[in-house]
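hey m, so remember when u said the tokens were messed up on ur end? i reran from scratch. heres the input so u can diff it against urs
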Amino acid sequence: MTKRVKKQSRKAGLPPGTLIHIGDVLSDQIKISLMSYDEEHVAERSISTLQECRLPEDFPGITWINVEGLHETKILEQLGANFGMHPLILEDILNTAQRPKIEDLGKYIFIVLKMFNNHEDKAEELESEQVSIILGSNYVVSFWEKEGKTLDPIRERIRSGKGRLRKMGPDYLTYAIIDAIVDSYFIVLEQLGEKIEFYEDTLVSKPTPQTLQAIQHLKREMIILRKSVWPLREIVGFLERTESNLLDDSVGIYFKDVYDHTIQLIDTIETFRDTLSAMLDIYLSSISNKMNEVMKVLTVIATLFMPLTFLAGVYGMNFTFMPELKWEYGYLMFWILIAITVVLMLIYFRKKKWL
């Protein structure tokens, strides 16, 4: 089960900029890859030593350093020293409970996003990880909590030279990473939509306490998604409108496209939240109606037995002079009277549409 609240008590009392990893360790080892490219050349390699975590001096193109795994603070500290990152920025990278945000620090732009992965199994929860991006004048450094395949299509486009990546600057690479993250939200929402449809059908046919638990679980996941997507709109909107020298005007239209996708995500999430709230109301109404049906049957049975109990009580008295008790057909007439009473009451109930 994914922890909803990250423990930050380890930082209590420590000075600002102290590098401590806050969150779960999602990767066994840290993997660092470096990719340098321009229109004509591409070079990539895995980095094994801290001294390699720097910009290649003999290459004038774009450099992309990708870090997968955040639990080794020494590596982050060395990267920060090589690229001139402020200690508070490094602290935010290591604190995986950050709210998505963007900060323009002049020499570079710092971006924090949330990445979500879903499972086909309906019992599994959303998996989230924090993604941090440093956008510089000729480089991009991205930080992920664990290894994943989200960036594989971007790497392949750089290797093959297809599209605009090789021709554009680091701002376009940043756009490509953010766009890949936003696209992953659509996949997650599609899977959540299938879950909602499944429980809608279950809710109509046979609601159970397990259905209620599933609805509550989906509502919690929608809250988490909403807390991540709403700040994402602010981030993309800032990148679209900013006048920073690190962002070329030609990339603004691409961020506008991502902004439109973000608005679509927000609309979908709000629709799902309303649907889940309505499903919860339907569940409660269904349970209430079911209880009313049970009470209705019990009330009808109790009402039918009231006159029968009266008749049985009357003829159960121990008086000596009761003419019907010594009559030859008294017992038979008693049951006939009971049957007539029941039939007349049922006819009356049906006429009143109580049955």
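this time it looks ok to me. Residues 108 and 136 are 5 Å apart (CA to CA). if urs says something different then somethings off w ur setup not the seq
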